[in-house]
Specification:
The complex is a heterodimer of chains A (481) and B (462). Chain A is α+β, with helices and mostly antiparallel strands and 481 residues long. In chain A, 20% of the residues lie in helices and 40% in strands. Chain B has 462 residues and is α+β, with helices and mostly antiparallel strands. In chain B, helix 2 (15-28) packs across helix 3 and helix 4 runs parallel beside helix 5 (216-231). Classes of the chains: A alpha+beta (481), B alpha+beta (462). Strand 2 (59-77) of chain A pairs parallel with strand 3 of chain B, so a sheet runs across the interface.
Chain lengths: 481, 462
């Protein structure tokens, strides 16, 4: 190996296309790792081709294509693991990474010895019907036209919109997973997101409003985007919040709208049901399987199967097909989300939830499409049941602390008075602790809907869907002024 | 143990080779104007759990961003982590394709300072350590931290890292910047639980240019002391309180609203300031804020930014008056000033601060000179760390509502607050400062003294 990344011998990329012809070369690497004494060796190889665009006011202000290659090699020995990522996909580069991962666990590469390795299975190719996805996606010209159409549509809705922005990201990824237990799988992923945000201003009053839409495996997603509908919704929100007063802080009942309202469940509960948290001993639910952890009105699932949902996948980043995992049934905890390492360290079986942002992260148990199932009430019945409280129509982001404390901001909120929606309020933050809030979700409406988002955690930022019907939380701390 | 993993030079960039390939491919494509920023990094890190290695990580990564100008002076950009000759050729093609969509109204240019003399930082690149050495240090830190108190049961989040980073900027007019540095960091986030009480947690972080200089014992001590102080906690009432921000918390707050000092944000209409705000009194008249990327305590300092402009120290707020902004080439051109060395690299270039320094200019101008975090007896809230900044800050409106870790202090006695949020308006906060303490404290994200603010809205659960 030379000091230069650009020297001639590096031109000989080992991986040009991800197909069966790679099998002998990958098997050599896996056999080397096994011969060195590893319990399991896993190789994740990735190619990516992305574009991101930004339209501001009536101009395209940024066009950023990017592409990349990389590999992550993970070696397990007992319950320990060593993980090395590299952009260098030459034979020498991958061997170096393998040696580094083995060295971390005190193992030294020997010569290839097949005694401890039975070889890879036939390739499970989840990408066969997806090979044309990149070509079928909108090109730069089509994408820019669509974004400018969006900012123009916003301009037509309201003269108070001082800032109008629309963004589009298309992320294409081809991945190959191979492991010394025989797993050999390939997939192609296509994720598209559209974001729109505005700042409305009149005099000294300012409000912001934002929406994000996303899909997986839908080449026509941008083409089918209902721009006028989004622009109308966004403008309505910004205009209503322009003169909103700050919410008064306190404890109160809250009705959370459907779609992105599901972020409360994602943050407050979902993360604590990942084996990543069990491994650290930070989940308050570690010994709660088959115990009541939520109100009986709450049943919740995490799945990777919904058609075109942002968190759906054909296989996880460890080569396993996703499942429909029932997490909570009528308030009783049923299952945790588990990946390979989580299963090894906690004993909970894998659920096809091993996910990573890209090759530079080791996979970890992560959520996919996570939502509370719908109930029998109408949204109006939930609001009607509240004398004085808060209606959270649109949520901002949120986060969860290591032991379950969560918080998230309310983007668009309204007071509830005597069972009816009252004036808009701003500056609200919902604060609580998972264990205390779950039993207080007492009513679920019949209007389940999902929303796309990004979740950042130990294995990077991954595409997820959050969701729920309208729900009522009997009492929660609302931070304000 | 395979020691070769840490002393191998794999992953280092070759600027001469990069330059010659870019020159070759630009000629082939009839591109006469281009620039390129590249970086590479080599890291190793360890994480432990209950005295054992949990996950050990290594990486060798590199990437580059290429910009080209077409004959209509539109800029196209492509980023790639494929630094083979084919990858670079593909990036050139991608950038040319993207240039067709370049913004005709606002095209970046080369920085006028891209070939100017650089400040001499020349950090010493440290010698690498083996994974085994890192692991032993981390095991020691975990054990020592747990042993400090019987209630501390684990350190669920921890990490020790050693990184080698290099950055290159080259352009078709002969600018050629190249710099390497090393960095090491440790973080400890411990959990404690006492019978019939909620679990509590607290953390500490240290960053330095080499592992040998990393003050691990002070990180253990800080984490332990904080965590122990949170074991006895209580709810507080929602009210307005006299509040003292620790240096870390005040820097978090100022950083969250740094779009006030950002010329790009002003041009985009998303800042609280506007093009005429220079010279405006935005804070109490004894507050100074500067951005000092060249400060000797800023261990991650590069001597040039994404556009090749030399890193500079800039006074942003002097005596409470907004005096300067942070600029890229494009914003500096628009404002009629020179770039300040705070740019990224892109078709639309981002601007960001390097290392904020908060100080006071006239001690006699404190509204309440008696306040002192160690001596004050009257009741106040001490905010140690803010959370959820990404979701709780409306930078374009100036408002914030943020959960925090902290204490209620009464008669000099600190009691941890169970759960609470602090809310306000940044401009009101800057004008409601009643005391800026004298002692400036170096943190991993900048320098600040303790800062006291009156009548902060705190939401508690009592």
């Amino acid at each position: 190996m030379t000091n230069s990344l650009l020297a001639k011998q590096n031109e000989n990329l080992l991986f040009h296309t991800f197909d069966e012809t790679l099998k002998p070369q990958i098997e050599d690497l896996l056999a080397l790792g096994k011969a060195a004494g590893a319990d399991l060796v896993e190789i994740f190889i990735e190619k990516s081709d992305n574009i991101s665009l930004l339209a501001e006011q009536d101009d395209i202000s940024n066009v950023s294509p990017s592409f990349g290659i990389g590999a992550g090699i993970r070696v397990f020995l007992g319950k320990k693991d060593g993980f090395v990522s590299t952009n260098d996909l030459t034979k020498a580069g991958l061997l170096f990474a393998l040696n580094q991962a083995l060295g971390m666990l005190g193992l030294v590469t020997a010569t290839i010895n097949r005694d401890r390795f039975d070889g890879l299975s036939d390739m499970k190719d989840f990408g066969t019907k997806k090979n044309d996805w990149l070509n079928l996606s909108p090109d730069l010209e089509e994408s820019t036209i669509k974004l400018l159409e969006a900012t123009k549509s916003l301009a037509g809705k309201n003269k108070n919109l001082q800032v109008r922005r629309a963004s589009y990201s298309r992320n294409w990824q081809e991945v190959l997973v191979a492991a010394s237990d025989g797993i050999f799988a390939r997939d192609i992923r296509l994720h598209q997101t559209v974001g729109v945000n505005v700042i409305a201003q009149q005099g000294k009053n300012r409000s912001t409003s934002a929406r994000r839409y996303g899909s997986s495996g839908n080449t026509d997603d941008l083409r089918n985007w209902e721009i006028d509908k989004s622009a109308y919704e966004l403008n309505e929100s910004a205009q209503k919040m322009l003169y909103a007063e700050y919410v008064e802080a306190g404890q109160m009942p809250v009705v959370l709208a459907n779609k992105f309202g599901g972020v409360i469940f994602h943050e407050a509960c979902g993360h604590l049901l990942e084996t990543t948290q069990l491994e650290r001993g930070t989940s308050p639910f570690h010994d709660s399987i088959n115990k009541q952890i939520a109100h009986k009105a709450v049943s919740a699932v995490d799945e990777g199967l919904s058609n075109h949902a942002f968190g759906s996948l054909s296989m996880d980043d460890e080569g396993m097909e996703p499942q429909n995992t029932l997490l909570i049934e009528n308030g009783i905890l049923k299952k945790f989300l588990s990946d390979r390492a989580g299963s090894l360290r906690t004993g909970h079986p894998r659920t096809g939830s091993g996910r990573r942002q890209n090759f530079s992260f080791a996979a970890a148990s992560r959520m996919r499409n996570t939502y509370i199932k719908q109930g029998n009430f109408t949204p109006e019945e939930l609001i009607k049941s509240v004398d004085e409280g808060l209606y959270c129509k649109s949520m901002g982001g949120g986060s969860v602390g290591p032991t379950g404390q969560f918080n998230f901001s309310v983007e668009e909120g309204y007071l509830i008075k005597n069972g009816k929606l009252d004036k808009p309020v701003k500056g609200a933050t919902l604060i609580g602790e998972a264990k205390e809030i779950l039993p207080r979700i007492s009513m679920c409406a019949d209007d389940l809907d999902l929303a796309a988002g990004f979740c950042g955690s130990v294995s990077g930022s991954v595409n997820v869907t959050v969701g729920q019907p309208h729900i009522k939380v009997d009492s929660i701390t609302v931070g304000g002024r | 143990m395979n020691n070769s993993i840490t002393n191998h030079k794999i992953g280092e960039l070759d600027p001469l080779l990069l330059n010659s390939l870019l020159t070759k491919y630009s000629h082939e494509s009839k591109i006469t104007k281009w620039d390129m920023g590249a970086s590479s990094s080599r890291d190793i890190s360890v994480q432990v759990q209950k005295g054992n290695a949990k996950q050990l990580k290594g990486s060798q990564r590199h990437s580059m961003t290429l910009r080209v100008w077409n004959k209509y002076n539109q800029v196209g950009i492509t980023s790639t982590s494929d630094l083979t000759s084919e990858g670079i050729r593909k990036a050139m093609r991608g950038a040319i394709e993207a240039s067709v969509f370049g913004n005709k109204k606002e095209s970046p240019e080369f920085s006028s300072l891209a070939k100017a003399e650089l400040a001499e930082i020349n950090p010493k690149v440290s010698d690498p350590h083996t994974i085994e050495e890192l692991l032993n240090i981390m095991k020691y830190a975990e054990k020592k931290l747990i042993d400090t108190h019987q209630s501390i049961d684990s350190v669920p989040y921890n990490g020790l890292n050693e990184s080698y980073i290099e950055r290159i900027y080259i352009n078709s007019e002969g600018a050629n910047r190249h710099m390497k540095l090393s960095q090491s960091s440790i973080y400890l986030y411990a959990k404690a639980e006492e019978e019939n009480k909620k679990p509590r947690s607290a953390g500490g972080i240290r960053v330095n240019s080499s592992l040998d200089k990393l003050d691990i014992n002070s990180c253990i001590k800080e984490t332990s002391e904080k965590l122990i102080s949170h074991l006895k906690y209580k709810s507080i009432e929602t009210n307005k309180y006299l509040t003292c921000f620790t240096p870390e918390a005040f820097l978090q707050l100022i950083s969250a609203f740094s779009s006030m000092f950002n010329a790009r944000s002003i041009m985009d209409g998303v800042s609280l300031m506007n093009e005429h705000s220079i010279g405006t009194q935005i804070a109490v008249s004894n507050l100074n804020i500067s951005d000092e990327g060249l400060h000797p305590d800023n261990v991650g300092a590069f001597s040039f930014d994404g556009e090749g402009t030399p890193t500079q120290n800039i006074n942003l707020v002097s005596r409470g008056i907004l005096t300067n902004l942070l600029h890229s080439e494009a914003t500096a051109r628009k404002f009629g000033v020179t770039p300040t060395g705070h740019a990224g690299l892109g078709a639309k270039v981002s601007v960001s601060p390097d290392w904020l320094v908060v100080s006071k200019c006239k001690p006699e101008m404190d509204k309440d000179q008696s306040l002192n975090v160690k001596k004050t007896l009257q009741e106040f809230i001490l905010i140690d760390e803010l959370s959820a900044i990404h979701s709780g800050v409306k930078a374009s409106q100036g408002s914030f509502s943020l959960p925090f870790d902290g204490w209620i202090v009464s008669n000099g006695k600190k009691t941890s607050i169970e759960a609470a949020t602090v809310a306000g308006d940044i401009l009101n906060v800057l004008k409601s400062i009643v005391k800026i303490e004298n002692e400036q404290i170096v943190t991993h994200q900048g320098i600040s003294p303790h800062v006291w603010v009156q009548d902060m809205s705190i939401t508690g659960e009592a």
